[in-house]
Amino acid sequence: MTRDSVHQILIAAELFLLALPVSVICMLFSLALLFTVSFPWSLEALLIIHFVLIGNLGIVGLWWVAVAYLRYPGAGLKKPQWEWRAACLGAGLVSVSLLLLGLIVAGWQAPEAAVIVATGSLASPLLVPFLHLACLRRTPLARQ
Prior knowledge:
It comes from Halomonas salipaludis. The chain is mainly α.
């Protein structure tokens, strides 16, 4: 087994065991949230709508990059451009959600919009395949 095949097996396992259930749950919850928040157009509602849409774009970008790596192990990580940026945005939003969740657990009296954004921490298992792909993208073998 080569190094690439081991990483492909690990990425596939991470996708099916962690990313698939979380992606389905987050997509369904985000659709429900969009249907309940989309009207009236207050500033908090717009913040939540943008957060949800960018989070969904991050999930799609992560899946796109991961499938590209599984199909083309050598060139699959250096070819995607917007997909990788979308996955990075999604990872950043998950980090913000985890930070807000930590502040809420520590005792911060958060407004309702912050509590809704903190529910994005449900997507934290998506950080495992993202960080694995990020490390693979930085290795010298991925740059060849």
